[in-house]
Task: structure prediction
Amino acid sequence: MNGVLSKDIQTVLLSREQIEKRVEEIAEAITRDYRGESVLMVGILRGAVVFFSELVKRVDLDVRFDFMVVSSYGSGTESGGEIRIVKDLSQPIEGMNVVIVEDIIDTGYTLKNLLRLLGTRNPKSLKIAALLDKPSRRKVPLEGDYVGFKVPNEFVVGYGLDYNEKYRNLPDICVLKPEVYS
Ligand code: IMP
Ligand code: MG
Result:
């Protein structure tokens, strides 16, 4: 455990060993599903960075990288669920197999909007790989094609996920002590 940040951690929900094993399984599934094809893996910054880099190393295919930055519109995102593209892809995706790599599916708004947007660009295929899924929070129907773990309705940090930009570098997925939020 990261010594500096460990004082804020209530529990480790998923250990680095559990995560590594699951990331390996997801990479094997992707390798199997796209055999003989090339794949563009699109990491959603910044939360997916750790998952993305651990995943791509294990995918035994002709893989290209790209990245997007998206942000939710203002604070009233729960109502409309619109997103803003802060950084778009750096290349066209027409005819390509695209796998969006995201940290967590929560309300589903981010990925629903991304699927709609990227879908208009005529990729050959478009799938979602998400490390975590919080189905109890869903506002729009959406399922990941590759999901690491279903998690309860608790705010989690680590392995790329943040609270106010902090805790992304924790190697495990953790629940913070309640006093951290107050
Ligand atoms: P969605 O559009 O509501 O599905 O939101 C997805 C985004 O919300 C993720 O990419 C995360 O940045 C953030 N998020 C949702 N739940 C958590 C959490 O438990 N911890 C940290 N970030 C979260
Ligand atoms: Mg975040």
User: Anything to note?
Assistant: The chain is about 25% helix and 30% strand. Residues 47, 162 surround magnesium ion (ligand 2) (CB under 6 Å). The first helix runs from residue 16 to 33. Residues 43 and 52 are 6 Å apart (CA to CA).
